[in-house]
Amino acid sequence: MRDEGAAISSPKPAPFLTDEQRAALDQALRDKAQEQAKARAAANHKAAAASGERKSRSAKGPGGAKKGGGGGKYTWGSLLTTGAPAAKGDVALDKGDPNYDSEEDERDVVLLRNHQAALRQEVAAYKEQVRSIVEEYFVSGSVSDVAESLEELGASHLAHYFVKRLLTTALDHKDREREMASTLLSSLYAEVIAPDQLIKGFTSLFTSLPDLVLDVPEAPELLSRFVMRAVVDDVLPPAIVSYVDPESGPACRDLRQRCEAQLAARHNAEKVLRCWGGAGTGTHFTDSKAAISSLLAEYLVARDLGEASRRLRELGLPFFHHELVKQALVAALDNPSHVDPVVALLARLSSSGEVSCSQLAKGLRRVADNLADAVLDNPAAGERFAQLVAAARTAKVFDDLEPEDMGTNAALAVFGTPAAADGASGPSSTCASNGGGGGAVASSSGGASAGGVVVAMPPGVAAFKAASLAALREYFDSQDAEEVAARLVALEEPGLHPLFVKAAVSLALDRKDRERELVSKLLVALVPEVISPEALAGGFTRLLAAADDLVLDVPDAVHLLSLFLGRVVVDELLPPAFLTQVLPSLDADGLGVAVVRSAGIMLAARHGFERLVNCWHGGALELGAVRQAIRAAIEEYGTSGDVAEVARCLRELGASSFSHEAVVAAVELAFSRYHGKATTTTQAPGANGSAQPQPKEEHESDAGAAPSDGSLEAAAGPVVELLTALAGQGVLSATQLTTGIERVRAALSEEVMDYGPSSQQVLNWITERGLREGWLAAA
């Protein structure tokens, strides 16, 4: 479908993808799924071999030899075989036995003592190794490493010591480590740690609870949470509570009461699953980001520095503090009123040492290096960043940072000179070394300067992004694809066209179907004359790779991106093979794979071609089509009187800047009704540039027309009710209402010729009602 204006002559019932293309896509998706499952499968196989115990083939019995080693058909076994020799070590230990041998007795005592000593050494060595495994896990968070380490130890009968060490260590840490401990037990249960060893580990904790209380006073409450979390995770049976002896002391009694109360509570499972705080307490990257976002959002409302500092310490993520710095700076860029609280927060955390210099520099560098992308969404981001850095310098937030740690852009912003590692080359250093002219160059290329602070970005990329953003926003209003093509050609940056594709689709994601349809049509107009197919493929590859970030701003981004991707394939801008070729470059756990899968399903479905061609519901109508749709809605209102249907139609059109056409059509409906003439679908251009209904003969009327001798109230009252309702719902703004009335007033001579001299009286009556009821502003 190369011609955007070409009509589809006939439907295509067959799927758009051929059988070979669908088979290739399915195979690529299966390969990607196997990548995601490979690590999990490897960990499970290793965990299954971790116990090392001999298993019975029938999965029953202890796994030893049959019949005491004397098995065989038609035998009772060695224990009942007459004359069978005694097993090794099976000697009489009774002094009254005639076979009693004192030397054998002494030898057995020695062997027992040696065995006990060896067992003590084994337990001590196991405990020492387990301690290091637990400490390493709380740093790395790798469950597979723990499973592998326990497999190498091979002492599955001592696993209860690991359970006890894990829980006692977590009791003395924060909620993050406690959540990690609960997650680890759930992951290792039955595969690495046997159920009886897990129960034994918990019961040993119950026994030592009176001693634990001396070091951790809140141990009963915390241990009850561990117990209930294990019960909810199906790791422990509810009967584990019976192992707690309430007579052992007040701590055990408190523990048992807490566990029984939580077991009896209704709908307690959801609460228990979040007993350690839920999101942010685990090790997942998105959880940590969500916890920091929550912390920052609460601080920006309450402005409580002490509470923010306390929550940051409780998270226990010193290696991830750069995310807090980054989110705080971005919040200040988005809202200038947040500059002062953000600077105060960073000054408090940096001066107290809670956020290290390296984390502060890393967060600042992340914002400075991505400032060019921020300009696409917020053109004032460069200037605001410079002002924010100046305020932070005044508060001495960045005084202890080294230029080498923060990169070129951040170093230019803070110190006015590039980092030593980057200062010898690159466009950024060139801009900075030009003295007074450097600031101008930086600003023109997407940077900003304020108060002597210069934010430099690669001039070609920054200037191209800024020009692309301006062209796209103008295109959304003018719908002039030729103007966009001329601008792209004038920029002379074909290597940056993938950035234009990404910016166009990203802007359309957060808008309505009208803009999405416009972007789809724009790509048809630009490819391949202006944008090469390779650049288009590069732009969509970037979009798929950034799907996880886009979904944070646009929750429906996965579905919308799949529609965009399917649309460019249907429009023959990209080949169907692109879906298969792009998969290897995507993260197996990322949402980009889901976008490709969804697009493949739609392309392979019957009538998928028609659905994708109309995926935006014809949102980008021409102005003439918008005018005709508005007048059709007003004409239908004259018959049905359904205000809700008119409001729905205007909202779906998404042309709020052209809503004054509805006011003109409504007033002309009042003219028609007062003279007994019905509005018709036959249109003729009027003096005000809008389509005017052709007058009919006096005897022509329909069900919606008022009689010729009807009162003015009966004829124009419904129109006033419509305009009042639309204004109250926010569908029509005061500006659009005023513009529509003024359009009718300017073309009143033409209206009189069509509807008679009483049109002036009807218009004055409607205007007076609007002024009196407040939905029309005074001129």
Structure in words:
It is found in: Cytoplasm. Belongs to the PDCD4 family. This protein has 779 residues and is mainly alpha-helical. The protein folds into four domains: 159 residues, Alpha Horseshoe (Serine Threonine Protein Phosphatase 5, Tetratricopeptide repeat), CATH 1.25.40.180; 173 residues, Alpha Horseshoe (Serine Threonine Protein Phosphatase 5, Tetratricopeptide repeat); 153 residues, Serine Threonine Protein Phosphatase 5, Tetratricopeptide repeat; 151 residues, Alpha Horseshoe (Serine Threonine Protein Phosphatase 5, Tetratricopeptide repeat), CATH 1.25.40.180. It is built from 37 helices and four strands. A hairpin with a 5-residue loop joins strand 3 and strand 4.
